[in-house]
Amino acid sequence: xxxxxxxRNAVNLLLCTAGAGxxxxxxxxxxxxxxxxxxxxxxxxxxxRACAGLxxxxxxxxxxxxxxxxxxxxxxxRTVDFEEIPDGCVLSRIEERHGREAQVSQFTLxxxxxPQERVLHTVEDFPDEPFRTLDLGSQGDMTARTRLPDRMxxxxxxxxxxxxxxxxxxxxxxxxxxAGTTTLxxxxxxxxxxxxxx
Length: 198
Fold this sequence. Notes:
Elements: H1 6-50, H2 57-62, E1 70-72, E2 87-97, E3 100-114, E4 152-153, E5 160-162, E6 166-172, E7 183-189
Antiparallel strand pairs: 1-2, 2-3, 3-7, 4-5, 5-6, 6-7
């Protein structure tokens, strides 16, 4: 390059450096976008397959602030195959924590069957005992305290209810299944992570 003076050479060097930096940053951004797209595509396919198409994959990935990397979760990976009831799927998100990848619970779908129809909102609907007496101030009243917030009806005429982290829908079978199942209770749960949005 011809010498055009000290100031013009400095400006040219600055422009060349900025251009090279822009190319590097642009290449990194392109790679990151491609990787995110591939992760999202693979996660959609996994969610659809693991939960037998019963849930919207994009909605599952948007839960709890959103993620683009979802894997089978839980101690024993579960997927819905309808070969026997109860059934369900468990999904986890991949997060970076202290420089390492960690699995965090993202979504669970549980499917239970009933041999006969029954009303919701009974104690058996909850895996833990919802009503627990407290030594201080309960005075023997089982309903004096509850560890669970009030359940809310779906509001659109369908059987079911919802809480802060889950929704339950009841579906009656047109004809009893081979095992005598007449009703399915399907619960979708997304545990809230501290400090994150819904």
